[in-house]
Amino acid sequence: MHPRKQTDKLLSRLQKVECPDTTFFAERFPIVMKRGSGMWVRDVDDNRYLDFTACFAVLALGHRPKTSIHAMRKQAASLLHGMGDVHPTLPKIKLLELLADLSPYANAKSLLGQSGGDAIESAMKTSMLVTGRSRFLSFSGGYHGLQFAPLVLNDRTDFTQGFESWISGKTFILPFPYFKGDISFDNLTDDFLQQEHKLENPDKVLQLLEEQLKKKEYAALVMEPIQGRGGKRGFSSEFVKQCKDLCAKYGTLLVFDEIYTGFGRTGKMFAYEHYNVIPDLLCVGKAMGGGLPISACIGEVLDVWGKSKGEARQTQTFLGNPIACAVAYETVTVIQKNLPLFQKELIKIDDVFAKFIHAMNENNLMKKFPFEIRGKGFMRGIWFYKQNEGFSVPLMERLLEAGYLILPEGPRADVLSLTPPLIAKAEHFEKILNALVLELKKI
């Protein structure tokens, strides 16, 4: 077992001063992070861990990348803070130009924020201005932030409990569809998928969607192209196309929450490229900031806000912070430049997953722990769909003891999430997947 003397002392101090609904505590969880470099993290007891979270998929270039450090130092030497909606700074202008160039829109505008929830709130308000409507649609299992506006898109009672009066009537939550073409679903019945996992036939979901859209009450359908905390589950291209067509037919905007999936995470710059569908609004964040808090809502329909007459209607004190913008500009530029190299490595990583499946079969673990590998690129999830709810939580704790940072996900916490920095190599995936086989053999 890893030594935890300093960790336990510090966690005891934390529990005395932090809101009790913030940090999850178990017998040997969490660690207190002290220093990171590339793919690796050390805690206050000097234990070393291979990071397969990228700190919630934020650190696309790894811990303490030279890109972020150099950009921070250079910008800090001239200006620490600006005036987001009054006197602009050069880093803000450069970043907005870059986002416009990378976006799928001919005349893109962006509204900056500090968190993913800010970007979603901007998209929701924009959708209301465009359509004159005030209700929203989202998918079960989606995670779009916990501020009051994005909270209404959420169907997880552990997030919404106590706030039902605020949420009531504002959103219709669509069941998440299953796609029976998936290999692991061949022997699973519709009843099992519906009752155990609350999944629904995609045709039924589209029928429900159209029934709601016909009411012409909805400003936007907000969806993640691949769900992050929902367990790395995605859609078929045809399904997404039909969602787009139905929204257009009934005057509802389509918003893609790419806060998790954007900037190379899925093997493409943005996940919408996998579906060949362009949303009306694109929300980005996480990896964009290189470790600093910044996000953006991007689209052509942002023109609906009109020109400010002295008071911006969607702003905040730290909007367009020059250090965050400078780091974001350099980070996104480096990701764009290196994306072909990341894509090349993914071919080798796919081979490692094939070896993992072989090892699971060889060790007679496939029948005991049947699974499906979900997601794309550097955003994968191993879904143990026949295990009890919460199965991946103790597995996460076992892997932490073995020297790996990893998270459980999905509505039932039965998905093991693999979202390392984009600098991850096939050998890193091999290490953690081999460790996973060893841990499963012990169960």
From TrEMBL:
Which terms in the Gene Ontology molecular function aspect does this entry carry? identical protein binding; pyridoxal phosphate binding; transaminase activity
Superkingdom of source: Bacteria
Cross-referenced PROSITE patterns: AA_TRANSFER_CLASS_3
Keywords, A to Z, come to:
Aminotransferase, Pyridoxal phosphate, Transferase
Has UniProt tagged this entry with the keyword Plastid? no
Q: Which Pfam families match?
A: Aminotran_3 (PF00202)
- What CDD domains does the record point to? OAT_like
User: What does the record give as cofactor?
Assistant: pyridoxal 5'-phosphate
Report the family membership.
Answer: Belongs to the class-III pyridoxal-phosphate-dependent aminotransferase family.
What's the protein here called?
Aspartate aminotransferase family protein
Biological source species: Fluviispira sanaruensis
